Amino acid sequence: MVKIGYARVSSKWYRNEVQLGELQRQGCDRVWRDTDADENDGANSLTAFLEDVSEGDVVVVSRLSAVADSIAELLNLIEMLSKKGVAFRSIAEPWVNTEDERAKVVLDILGGVIDFELGLADLESRAIEDRPRSIGLNKGRPKKLSETDRAEALSLLSMGKTAAEIGRLLGVSRSTISRLKTMPAETG
């Protein structure tokens, strides 16, 4: 078992000595240093780190913010590590230690909470989209022709009248009538 520390800083003005000290006190055999100021972006650097770890290793971080910007990102990282047989541990958040079965339960619960939150967000966005329709409003411009006028225009078109003649008769432009030729029949 190899303990591999991971230290990341997101600003060129912040130095990672504090994280490095914490990781050394935890007995890490190696420490991976990552900064957003590097030429590679954070995703490429983390990918390279994940390729460097192997089955049986333990990844140690000083705090969760060193590896993830959200719970979903954290859970995704932990899942990728566990697929490789790599354990994960945070010094500042001891409840995140995949070597401990209780921590695995906590992480499973967090995953369920995220799924629940995403479901609620999806329902809310659908409700927002459906709200105008529920009070009789439609997206876009109002229709120039009523269904009756539309049916009459189509009937006149089929009898050979020109779009300009029908437009003058119904009080709309020739192009409005011309578009009726290409529009599918509405149902409902």
What does this structure look like?
The chain is α/β, with parallel strands linked by helices. Helices cover 51% and strands 11% of the residues. The chain contains seven helices and four strands. The protein has helices spanning 17-25, 42-52, 71-83, 101-134, 147-158, 163-170, 174-182, and strands spanning 3-9, 30-35, 58-61, 87-90. A four-stranded parallel beta sheet has the order 2-1-3-4, with helices on both faces. α3 links the parallel β3 and β4. α5 runs antiparallel to α6 (163-170) and α6 crosses α7. The longest helix is centred in the middle third of the chain and has 34 residues, at 101-134. The chain is rod-shaped, with a radius of gyration of 31 Å. The relative contact order is 0.08. The mean pLDDT is 82.
Summarize the structure.
51% of the residues lie in helices and 11% in strands. The protein has 188 residues and is an alpha/beta fold.
Tally of contiguous helical segments: 7
Q: What global shape is seen?
A: rod-shaped
Instruction: Please give the share of residues in helix.
Output: 40-55%
Strand runs, count: 4
Q: Determine the strand fraction and express it as a percent band.
A: 5-15%
Major sheet characteristics: 4 strands, parallel
Written as H for each helix and E for each strand, in order along the chain, the element string is: EHEHEHEHHHH
Radius of gyration: 31 Å
Mean pLDDT: 82
**Cα distance, first to last residue?**
66 Å
Strand order of the biggest β-sheet: 2-1-3-4
**Poorly predicted ranges:** none
Sheet/helix structural class: alpha/beta
